[in-house]
Specification:
The protein has 507 residues and is mainly alpha-helical. It is 49% helix and 4% strand. The strands form 3 sheets. It has a two-stranded parallel ribbon with strand order 1-2. The chain has a two-stranded parallel sheet with strand order 3-4. The chain has a two-stranded antiparallel ribbon with strand order 5-6. It binds flavin-adenine dinucleotide, ligand DLZ and iron/sulfur cluster (SF4). Residues 3-5, 27-29, 32-33, 38, 43, 46, 78, 99-101, 104, 394 line the site of ligand DLZ.
Length: 507
């Protein structure tokens, strides 16, 4: 069996495949397409990439049992399709590469248990750090920090090392990568992929079968084959990477791509290999074509963050899925879906997300994530939104980013403190505030920037949970100096902002 995000030539499940005897099963099923209401582009991307991969396998003489979404006999679950394929007794068992998500992994284990089918689950060696390796690294540590994991991965792969030491003398050049965008500078035009015939058909299918899902298919431009993904990676490495570091954290209204790689969809589907992407970025540095802060920053995202969050997910799941450290209990405001809000920064992120199933890291972290956390939105609703709206979203990578990095629902497993920030941060990193109905300089009242109104109240509301966090010592000292009356007023101000924005207590 090859799942929709396992579309790699070297997939472990395909090793030793005998075309004379084995059949590859691939199935487009409603259970996977609707466990959240995925963005239409995400479903179209996966169906198109699955269909293209099946054609490639067939081209190599492999038999593929490919079940389409509109096949009348489709049972619409992965387990159901395995059961159908095995029904006539032709096959002795199933070989599969381990699932990315706990949910599906459990369903497959239940299927094997209840039917007595022999299911051989192979390790997913497309990742640089296997589960055992991550567990060994994590074992005995009171705190799991990406930075130390990342150094271990650098040592193990030899990437950006000279004689065992980090190139340039430092492991991490993040301090050079936090610039707001220079006034007047616009990001370069980006190479997008025109849908090929297979993708166009998948797009039409999704429009017809999932009309009520979030997002638009109009601007679909994701690579759906390994060859197309290579072209995008190549273009990024040659023309964009040199400035990736400088503007990594910057936001510009109406500019979704900035200097980002646009490769997460391809990495997560298996169209690109993460270690290969890192090595090729290193070549750009060694050849003098890209500076170290850019190359190290890019490699850290993949070799560090991507591997780290996957490790954390599988170390902590399923308990991680229930984490709600801040006891957040509010609903997600409707404007996260509609984009109808006077908050210019948020409206811009939602508009981009609808159009492209994409927004970049700082938008996900410091605009929507920061807002959801300060509003106190329940983590289940936050997860549901992030899993639904981004074309690169799979729980193994989405959840540690939302419950961990963005909203501190995990209580400090992924990050050491909540990334709460007032409007001043967004004003520094973006051009949105200039055209916003709200006043980024005002702290209180209906016309004040909601991020400002929420910030102190968020800290006050969570005093008992966060006061002892050493990284928050400064803001809590300031808050303490405000005195009880002012603190009560700030709490009331944040409460009024929560109500105004439509984050109400869940029933
Ligand atoms: P670039 O900025 O060019 O980075 C290069 C690559 O590094 C990415 O393609 C990605 O594979 C990897 N990377 C960067 N940051 C992270 C990270 N924090 N965690 C894991 N990998 C990272 N990424 C997903 O792939 N799927 C998700 O569902 C997802 N959800 C997120 C939710 C939140 C709240 C946040 C804060 C981040 C999330 N990310 C997710 C991480 C990151 O935002 C995206 O990987 C990135 O925006 C993808 O765009 P890019 O390829 O242009 O990335
Ligand atoms: C995300 C997704 C979607 C939308 N559709 C399918 C599908 O129809 N068939 C399939 O095999 N996989 C699909 N996927 C990807 C799976 O959800 C993914 O393999 C698991 O979430 C594990 O990461
Ligand atoms: Fe966003 Fe506040 Fe700036 Fe408006 S003023 S764009 S809400 S940060």
């Amino acid at each position: 069996m090859v799942l929709g995000d396992q579309l790699s030539d070297g997939l472990s499940a395909l090793e030793g495949l005998d075309p004379a005897r084995d059949v590859v099963l691939m199935a487009e099923v409603r259970d996977e397409a609707t466990y959240v209401r995925h963005h239409k582009q995400k479903i179209a991307l996966i169906f198109a990439a699955m269909r293209s991969f099946a054609v490639q396998l067939e081209g190599r003489g492999v038999s593929v049992r490919y079940v389409r979404i509109d096949d009348l006999a489709n049972s619409h679950s992965i387990a159901g399709e395995l059961e159908r394929a095995l029904a006539d007794g032709t096959f002795a068992g199933v070989v599969i590469t381990e699932c990315g998500e706990w949910r599906l992994s459990e369903a497959l284990a239940a299927f094997a248990g209840s039917t007595g089918t022999r299911v051989e689950v192979r390790q997913d060696d497309r990742f640089i750090c296997g589960h055992d390796r991550f567990r060994r690294w994590a074992s005995g540590k009171s705190q799991l920090r990406m930075e130390f994991f990342y150094r271990e991965m650098r040592r193990e792969t030899g990437i950006l090392l000279d004689d065992g030491q980090p190139v340039g003398g430092k492991w991490n050049y993040d301090a050079e990568n936090r610039k707001g965008l220079t006034k007047g500078l616009r990001p370069p035009a980006r190479l997008r992929t025109s849908p090929d015939a297979i993708a166009r058909e998948a797009i039409a299918d999704v429009e017809r079968l999932f009309p009520d899902h979030f997002g638009s298919l109009e601007a679909f431009g994701w690579p759906t084959t390994a060859e197309q993904a290579e072209v995008v990676l190549d273009d990024f490495l040659r023309t964009i990477l040199p400035r990736f570091g400088d503007w990594q954290d910057a936001i510009a209204s109406g500019e979704p791509w900035m200097w980002h790689g646009l490769i997460s969809t391809s990495l997560n589907l298996g169209l690109l290999n993460p270690l290969d992407a890192c090595r090729r970025a290193e070549v750009e540095y060694r050849a003098g074509r890209a500076p170290l802060n850019a190359v190290e920053g890019f490699i850290r995202q993949i070799l560090g963050w991507r591997e780290f969050v996957r490790g954390i997910y599988w170390l902590k799941v399923p308990e991680y899925r229930r984490r709600n450290f801040l006891d957040a209990d509010r609903t997600l405001p409707a404007f996260f879906w509609s984009g109808e809000t006077d908050m210019a920064c948020v409206a811009d992120v939602v508009a981009q997300t609808r159009a492209h199933a994409y927004s970049h890291h700082i938008q996900r972290l410091m605009v929507t994530g920061n807002l959801a956390m300060m509003l106190g939105v329940h983590p289940d609703e936050v997860d549901d939104w992030y899993l639904s709206v981004y074309a690169d979203a799979y729980e193994w990578v989405e959840m540690p980013n939302t419950r961990g990095m963005a909203t501190f629902a995990d209580g400090g497993i992924v990050g050491s403190k909540p990334y709460a920030a007032s409007g001043a941060y967004i004003d520094r990193m973006s051009d949105a505030c200039g055209s916003c109905q709200y006043d980024v300089k005002a702290r209180t009242g209906d016309g004040a920037c909601p991020f400002n109104r929420l910030y102190w109240g968020f800290l006050e509301r969570n005093r008992s949970r966060l006061r002892d966090n050493v990284r928050l010592a400064m803001p809590y000292r300031t808050l303490d100096n405000f005195g009880p009356e002012r603190r009560a007023a700030l709490l009331a101000e944040a409460e009024a902002a929560r109500t105004m924005l439509g984050a109400v207590t869940r029933s």
